[in-house]
């Protein structure tokens, strides 16, 4: 299979893995274990495991749950499920027992790949009759079904912060297109090696990193989890040329003590930030300190990750924007669902080959998410005359104070402007007088002497009294989802339960 920047990938994940296997190049390196996988080795192990799954009686299109952290075994299990024509159902290990139990029951899987570290969690959450697949515990090798690009490949559940998680279904076609949008935007080639520190049970880790490497023919360095103190050493050990992270990781690296070697700096073409808005001061500070450009992007689970990206240097990167569309079309919708003119705020919508097929067993939610063939993101933003999108907030996260809409991101940006603030999130809380009032939570760098009044005054100076938080809470760490994205909607819940 050939990577073509102007044409979305054709075929199935099986086709692309077979093609990569012919090159005998390196697919994955694992710095923590000094292990590696070549594409041919990965294909052979995945094919044999897929044949064993057929031998267990699993049929084409059936869900197979994958309960694995990042690592060699998890990578092989994922590719085996794709290769066999089954629906790889990624289980969020950070979701908690009830969400894991819901996903395992809802997906209808009879079998699950379970890492040894997750056996207790599986036993506690698995529905009756679900069987864990362990090494060597497969059926007699059997023939594989024929696959088409439209066949289901992936089932991934949303975070469910405002209700039950929704199961996003991607076909082989949309899954490959998710890797293609990344490869096109970042000019990935077989010479590139990415750094995967985000969990592969999140769409960023799976599509941007894993599918990006598959489509481009490059390779991937993978670690079990992000570590501020180890990140640069692992990047050097794996010899990576780019990395994909989230804003909280960018901030932790900026405020950390570790430094990249000169060789690592020279080797890195760029770092990529997604999953939530990157504060302007954080991006600027990172680039000034490490001399590594950060490319801000935006993606969704429903779009197999990336929909927007800033161009690579020396292209125009507009700080504060996740960029322009690559491989798909993006527009801003007005309240009447027509296209908004440049500069006018509305809901960000997308259409293209990377868009999901449906929400599993949820036709009403599927219908509500689409207007024609445009997928509604739930994010608010505006587009300038150059096509760059500026995200202003989430529809569900807007703070409505005295009838006025306040975007939490505007307050976050000011708080991140203080050099001691590592994490920040503004949120709304019920208020008798205004309906909602503004509050915020932050975490500070170690040894900081900042007090609440300092941050309150900073907000008053930059935002005025109306948008300034009434209260700011100091936390050691803010609640996050599996990708590291701060979950601001959980802050009010935690406060109400007197957890903070």
Largest sheet descriptor: 9 strands, mixed
Total number of beta strands: 26
CA radius of gyration: 22 Å
On the 0 to 100 scale, the average pLDDT is: 93
Look at the helices and sheets and give the structural class: alpha/beta
Number of domains: 3
> Would you identify the CATH architecture of the largest domain?
3-Layer(aba) Sandwich
Biggest sheet: strand arrangement: 2-1-10-9-11-12-13-14-15
Globular, elongated, flat, extended or rod-shaped: what is the shape?
A: globular
CATH class of the largest domain: Alpha Beta
Which secondary structure elements does this structure contain, and how are they paired or packed?
Layout: H1 13-21, E1 26-30, E2 35-38, H2 39-55, E3 63-67, H3 72-84, E4 87-90, H4 97-107, E5 111-114, H5 119-125, E6 131-133, E7 152-157, E8 167-171, H6 172-186, E9 193-196, H7 203-216, E10 219-222, H8 231-238, E11 242-245, H9 247-255, H10 262-267, E12 270-273, H11 280-290, E13 294-300, E14 305-309, E15 324-325, E16 329-333, E17 346-351, E18 358-359, H12 363-369, E19 370-371, E20 374-383, E21 389-394, E22 399-401, E23 404-406, H13 408-416, E24 421-431, E25 435-444, H14 452-463, E26 471-474, H15 489-496
Parallel strand pairs: 1-10, 3-4, 3-5, 4-7, 5-6, 9-10, 9-11, 11-12, 12-13, 25-26
Antiparallel strand pairs: 1-2, 7-8, 8-18, 13-14, 14-15, 16-17, 17-20, 19-20, 20-21, 22-23, 24-25
Helix pairs in contact: 1-2, 2-3, 4-5, 6-7, 9-11
């Amino acid at each position: 299979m050939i990577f073509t920047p102007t044409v979305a990938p054709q075929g199935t994940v099986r086709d692309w893995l077979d093609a990569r296997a012919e090159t005998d190049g390196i697919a994955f390196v694992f710095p923590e274990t000094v292990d590696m996988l070549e594409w041919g080795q990965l294909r052979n192990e995945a094919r044999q495991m897929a044949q064993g799954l057929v031998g267990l009686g699993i049929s084409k299109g059936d869900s197979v749950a994958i309960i694995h952290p990042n690592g060699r075994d998890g990578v092989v299990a994922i590719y085996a499920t794709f290769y066999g024509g089954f629906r790889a159902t990624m289980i969020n290990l950070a979701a908690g027992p009830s969400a894991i139990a819901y996903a395992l029951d809802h997906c209808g899987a009879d079998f699950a790949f379970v890492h040894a570290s997750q056996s207790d969690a599986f036993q506690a959450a698995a529905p009756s009759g679900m069987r864990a697949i362990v090494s060597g515990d497969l059926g007699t090798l059997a023939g594989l079904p024929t696959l088409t690009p439209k066949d289901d490949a992936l089932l991934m559940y949303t975070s469910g912060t405002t209700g039950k998680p929704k199961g996003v279904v991607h076909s082989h076609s949309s899954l490959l297109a998710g890797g293609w949008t990344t490869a096109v935007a970042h000019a990935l080639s077989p010479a590139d090696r990415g750094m995967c520190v985000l969990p592969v049970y999140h769409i960023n880790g799976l599509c941007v990193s894993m599918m990006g490497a598959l489509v481009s023919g490059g390779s991937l360095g993978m670690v079990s989890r992000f570590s501020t103190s180890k990140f640069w050493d692992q990047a050097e050990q794996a010899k990576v040329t780019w990395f994909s992270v989230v804003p909280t990781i960018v901030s932790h690296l900026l405020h950390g003590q570790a430094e990249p070697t000169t060789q690592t700096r020279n080797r890195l073409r760029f770092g990529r930030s997604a999953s939530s808005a990157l504060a302007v001061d954080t991006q600027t500070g990172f680039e000034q300190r490490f001399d590594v450009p950060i490319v801000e992007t935006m993606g969704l689970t429903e779009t197999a990750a990336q929909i927007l990206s800033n161009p690579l240097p020396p292209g125009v990167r507009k700080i504060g924007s996740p960029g322009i569309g690559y491989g798909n079309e993006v527009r801003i919708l007005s309240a009447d669902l027509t296209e908004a003119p440049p500069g006018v705020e509305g809901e960000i919508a997308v259409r293209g080959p990377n868009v999901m097929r449906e929400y599993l067993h949820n036709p009403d939610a599927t219908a509500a998410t689409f207007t024609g063939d445009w997928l509604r993101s739930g994010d608010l933003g505006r587009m300038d005359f150059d096509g760059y999108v500026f995200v202003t907030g989430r529809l569900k996260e807007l703070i409505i104070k005295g009838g006025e809409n306040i975007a939490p991101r505007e307050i976050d940006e000011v708080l991140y402007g203080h050099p001691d603030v590592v994490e920040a999130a503004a949120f709304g809380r019920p208020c008798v007088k205004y309906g909602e009032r503004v509050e915020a939570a932050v975490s500070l760098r170690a040894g900081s002497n900042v007090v609440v009044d300092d941050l309150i005054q900073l907000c008053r100076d930059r935002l005025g009294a109306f948008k300034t938080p009434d209260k700011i809470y100091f936390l050691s760490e803010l609640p996050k989802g599996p990708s590291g994205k701060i979950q601001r909607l959980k802050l009010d819940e935690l406060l109400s339960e007197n957890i903070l």
